[in-house]
Design brief:
By secondary structure, this protein is α+β, with helices and mostly antiparallel strands. The chain folds into 3 domains: about 220 residues, Phosphoenolpyruvate Carboxykinase, domain 1; about 240 residues, Alpha-Beta Complex (Phosphoenolpyruvate Carboxykinase, domain 3), CATH 3.90.228.20; about 80 residues, Beta Complex (Phosphoenolpyruvate Carboxykinase, domain 2), CATH 2.170.8. About 30% of the residues lie in helices and about 20% in strands. The protein is built from 18 helices and 32 strands. Strands 1, 2, 5, 6, 7, 8, 9, 10, 11 and 12 form a 10-stranded mixed β-sheet that branches. A hairpin with a 7-residue loop joins strand 3 and strand 4. Helix 4 runs antiparallel to helix 7, helix 13 runs antiparallel to helix 14 and helix 13 packs across helix 18. The longest helix is centred in the C-terminal third of the chain and has 19 residues. The radius of gyration is 24 Å and the shape is globular. The termini are far apart. Bound molecules: oxalic acid (OXD) and manganese (II) ion. Oxalic acid binds next to helix 9. It is an enzyme of class 4 (lyase). GO terms for molecular function: GTP binding; manganese ion binding; phosphoenolpyruvate carboxykinase (GTP) activity. Its cofactor is Mn(2+).
Length: about 650
């Protein structure tokens, strides 16, 4: 996949697509060719086709056969390369200018700014989302979309988030000019005919996506054959119209619009309107040796190990962990007051570096077939490689980095981009829960918040009650990762792991969470906070993590059953001495250090939170959160 300029090939493929996929030819045909689309959906597609001016329009049916043709098209265009050592696996490399979510260019447009973002203290820049007025957005869209698909095919993707027709599921239509997006959406969502059947009237979310580079606009060679337009990236959400419009990036959360844009940003707005929760959470089931099973949902910021935890192989004998989802949970209280969760996605878009047979054996098994890899390195014998696989892959055969350079363990370049990904069907994961596709969802007994905290934050503690738990979510902080454009190693505030994904004012979001406390008859899950990443004075992690985290889940489940295995502390309830099962750990851990609550550190944390809340939420800060913070400070002072 060299970086040569090959517009001819794109043109050829575009026209071969026309023949091979038998789309409508010319916009005049749209009404008949797309006759299987209900009227409102057809009008939406027509409107966008008229603006974007693609050469042709193709309605995806989601079939295996169609998918094969898309992959072949991408192979011939030099966008994707089959990995011959693996079974139907493909390697895609992007332009290095398009490798992660772009939070600074992600906006929500409402007529009332306050609906979308809190008003920060004067002179402070808000960090809780970007708002754009409808007029500004209109201008920005007008500046980008007209003619943007010239020379390309517009693909129409009907999709369902969650099992098609399920009571918690929702449908969408994404139009895109990227075959990579089509192939990835087919893995990540239920895409095609069945989803189309569930679209009625205007019950669907409207998703428009373009890589933002019409053929006439291609003036210099594409980098790694990856069309994009980084300087014009805009990922916009229009809640009033249930619409998303994304321009300029083909990568991950910027372009697979079912994921962050729909399932989290618009999802959180729909959830608020309709009385449920759309959260950046994994869902897993854990069964103890007595056969008692519980489901938990856990929110960690991007690239903090949600996938590893969701697919964990427990080290404690007799325990089983099964995966429902690794990134997003849609949760709704049922008529019995039980919180039920579905995974709205159908695949995993996981961070590759660090994934290996030690950290996540189930992921390694999942990605051996039918997987699209993006920005990983390739071995000369047709396999994949990334940082973390040094002990498992024979790199003596030769490795080509994600940028197409020759890689060796000694030449100090990264083999894979830190945010390189695998995109694989969830159904291939050996530890999928038997109920992972249950339309009604699985019952949630505990909610866990967590982040990467190198200092001060114990391995696990329990919130004193729902309100304190909501405070813990609001107070979440974590070291930044490569999933977005921030510098790593900075400890960032990431409330509820939703900072990049709030669809509406964070203060209203907190109120929404708090409101469940007042509703009668709800079985509110217990709330916990975990930190696998605490480091000792030697700079090494104090806790082995990965499969050993089942010990923490075991304690959490026992607390859900009200076992007397917790003791109060100023920050919440900690495991009683010896309550955490440490039997059979490979090497001893320093339990005292792991669970210490350094008062100075926490008083400082209180100050930091106070500054954050008062500068970012200012007058919008819900009083119960301010009160929880005050109580925390008082409890710490009593222990000082
Ligand atoms: C993701 C993210 O891709 O959170 O899941 O960035
Ligand atoms: Mn995520």
């Amino acid at each position: 996949m060299s970086g040569i300029f090959r517009p001819g090939i794109y043109r050829l493929l575009s026209s071969s697509l026309q023949v091979k996929l038998t789309p409508c030819r010319g916009l005049a045909d749209i009404p008949t060719t797309l006759s299987s689309l209900p009227t409102i959906a057809r009008n939406y597609v027509k409107e966008k086709a008229n603006i974007c001016q693609p050469d042709d329009v193709y309605l995806c049916d989601g079939s295996e056969e169609e998918n094969k043709r898309f992959l072949e098209i991408m192979r011939r265009a030099g966008i994707a390369k089959p990995l011959r050592k693996m079974d139907n696996c493909w390697l895609v490399r992007t332009d290095p200018a398009d490798v992660a979510r772009v939070e600074s260019k992600t906006v929500i447009s409402t007529s009332d700014k306050r609906e979308t973002v809190p008003v920060p203290k004067e002179g402070v820049k808000g960090q809780l989302g970007n708002w754009l007025s409808p007029a500004e957005l209109e201008n920005a869209l007008r500046d980008r979309f007209p003619g943007c698909m010239e020379g390309r095919t517009m693909y129409i993707i009907p999709f369902s988030m969650g099992p098609v027709g399920g009571p918690i599921s929702k449908v969408g239509i994404q139009v895109t000019d990227s075959p990579y997006v089509v192939a990835s959406m087919r893995i990540m969502t239920r895409m095609g005919k069945d989803a189309l059947g569930a679209i009625q009237g205007d019950n669907f979310v409207k998703c428009l996506h373009s890589v933002g580079l019409p053929f006439s606009g291609v003036s210099k060679p594409l980098v790694q054959n990856w069309p994009c337009n980084p300087s014009k990236i805009l990922i916009s959400h229009i809640p009033d119209r249930n619409e998303i419009a994304s321009f300029g990036s083909g990568y991950g959360g910027n372009s697979l619009l079912g994921k962050k844009c729909f399932a989290l940003r618009l999802g959180s707005i729909l959830a608020k309107r309709e009385g449920w929760l759309a959260e950046h959470m994994l869902i897993l089931g854990i069964t103890n040796p007595q056969g008692k099973k519980k489901y938990v949902a856990a929110a960690f910021p991007s690239a903090c190990g949600k996938t590893n935890l969701a697919m964990m192989q427990p080290t404690l004998p007799g325990y089983k962990v099964e995966c429902v989802g690794d990134d997003i949970a849609w949760m709704k209280f049922d008529s019995e007051g039980v919180l039920r969760a579905i995974n709205p996605e159908a695949g995993f878009f996981g961070v590759a570096p660090g994934t290996c047979s030690h950290t996540n054996p189930n992921a390694m098994k999942t990605i051996q077939r039918n997987t699209i890899f993006t920005n990983v390195a390739e071995t000369d014998d047709g396999g994949v490689f990334w940082e973390g696989l040094e002990k498992e892959v024979d790199t003596s055969v030769g490795v080509t980095s994600w940028k197409g350079e020759m890689w060796t363990p000694y030449n100090r370049i990264l083999a894979a981009h830190p945010n390189s990904r695998f995109c694989a069907p969830a159904s291939q994961c050996p530890s999928m829960d038997p109920d992972w596709e249950s339309p009604a969802g699985v019952p949630i007994s505990a909610i866990i918040f967590g982040g990467r905290r190198p200092a001060g934050v114990p391995l696990v503690f329990e919130a004193n009650n729902w309100r304190h738990g909501v405070f813990l979510g609001a107070a979440m902080r974590s070291e930044a990762t490569a999933a977005a454009e921030h510098n790593t190693k900075v400890i960032m505030h990431d409330p509820f792991a939703m900072r990049p994904f709030f669809g509406y004012n964070f203060a209203d979001y907190i109120d929404h969470w708090l409101s469940f406390d007042e509703k009668p008859g709800l079985q509110l899950p217990k709330i916990f906070h975990v930190n696998w990443f605490r480091k000792g004075e030697d700079g090494k992690f104090m806790w082995p993590g990965f499969g050993e985290n089942c010990r923490v889940l075991d304690w959490i489940c026992r607390r859900v059953d009200n076992e007397d295995c917790a003791v109060d502390s100023p920050i919440g309830r900690l495991p009683k001495p010896n309550a955490l099962n440490l039997e059979g750990l490979d090497s001893p851990v320093n339990v005292d250090a792991l669970f210490s609550v350094p008062v100075d550190f926490w008083l400082n944390e209180c100050k930091e939170l106070e500054t954050y809340f008062s500068s970012q939420l200012n007058r919008d800060l819900p009083p119960p959160v301010a009160e929880e913070l005050r109580h925390l400070g008082e409890r710490l002072q009593q222990n000082a």
